[in-house]
């Protein structure tokens, strides 16, 4: 993954919109990962204080890409096929970290939990005002989602990193979408797709009792 490619929020939106297939009844792994690659590029443009986050995300994305390009790659084409393949092949650590700590099911669960943060953050951003602090919006969304799965040291490091985030107008400039109204229009367009992606993944993992993998 090239971290120097220019970020495009529009491309991220297209990726998360196009990953939903078969009438919102499955998610294409490749397109989902492309969305995350775009978001990682955006985060990298905000400064090295977030490098510990992007390193973890890149590591997870690269493991999924190895699965996709491997001998069993066809089983990793969609979320449904991945879950069914790994469960019937006993490739998921269901109750404790064992032989499969980096199963596709677990990696996608980690990214799904971050996706919940993203969904909450984007909604806060969409309804923010000129004097809203991006650091507060990020921290509130984190506290209501991903923080519940992280140990104290990660929570501390993450919340400290949020303090380095720029003001709202600068953040919008980095998003490089256009005027504030154009940013808000894109966020309004993005929210339904983000909800569909999150809701499908949540329902799939809940159906297979995979929401609390160790
Ligand atoms: C208009 C769009 C603006 C939104 C931009 C958001 C960009 C976010 C892009 C990527 C975020 C990647 C986060 C890193 C993945 C974290 C996955 C995770 O929870 N990993 C932990 C568990 O993994 P295992 O160790 O069990 O394998 C790992 O222990 C922790 C890693 C450290 C990172 C944790 C902090 C995550 C914060 C997510 C919020 C992103 C804030 C971006 C600031 C703009």
From TrEMBL:
<dbReference type="InterPro" id="IPR014830">
    <property type="entry name" value="Glycolipid_transfer_prot_dom"/>
</dbReference>
<dbReference type="GO" id="GO:0010008">
    <property type="term" value="C:endosome membrane"/>
</dbReference>
<dbReference type="GO" id="GO:1902388">
    <property type="term" value="F:ceramide 1-phosphate transfer activity"/>
</dbReference>
<comment type="function">
    <text>Mediates the intracellular transfer of ceramide-1-phosphate (C1P) between organelle membranes and the cell membrane. Required for normal structure of the Golgi stacks. Can bind phosphoceramides with a variety of aliphatic chains, but has a preference for lipids with saturated C16:0 or monounsaturated C18:1 aliphatic chains, and is inefficient with phosphoceramides containing lignoceryl (C24:0). Plays a role in the regulation of the cellular levels of ceramide-1-phosphate, and thereby contributes to the regulation of phospholipase PLA2G4A activity and the release of arachidonic acid.</text>
</comment>
<dbReference type="GO" id="GO:0005794">
    <property type="term" value="C:Golgi apparatus"/>
</dbReference>
<keyword id="KW-0445">Lipid transport</keyword>
<keyword id="KW-0813">Transport</keyword>
<dbReference type="GO" id="GO:0005886">
    <property type="term" value="C:plasma membrane"/>
</dbReference>
<dbReference type="GO" id="GO:0005829">
    <property type="term" value="C:cytosol"/>
</dbReference>
<dbReference type="Pfam" id="PF08718">
    <property type="entry name" value="GLTP"/>
</dbReference>
<keyword id="KW-0446">Lipid-binding</keyword>
<keyword id="KW-0333">Golgi apparatus</keyword>
<dbReference type="GO" id="GO:0005640">
    <property type="term" value="C:nuclear outer membrane"/>
</dbReference>
<keyword id="KW-0539">Nucleus</keyword>
<keyword id="KW-0963">Cytoplasm</keyword>
<comment type="similarity">
    <text>Belongs to the GLTP family.</text>
</comment>
<keyword id="KW-0472">Membrane</keyword>
<protein>
    <recommendedName>
        <fullName>Ceramide-1-phosphate transfer protein</fullName>
    </recommendedName>
</protein>
<keyword id="KW-1003">Cell membrane</keyword>
<dbReference type="GO" id="GO:0032691">
    <property type="term" value="P:negative regulation of interleukin-1 beta production"/>
</dbReference>
<feature type="domain" description="Glycolipid transfer protein">
    <location>
        <begin position="27"/>
        <end position="175"/>
    </location>
</feature>
<keyword id="KW-0967">Endosome</keyword>
<dbReference type="GO" id="GO:1902387">
    <property type="term" value="F:ceramide 1-phosphate binding"/>
</dbReference>
<dbReference type="InterPro" id="IPR036497">
    <property type="entry name" value="GLTP_sf"/>
</dbReference>
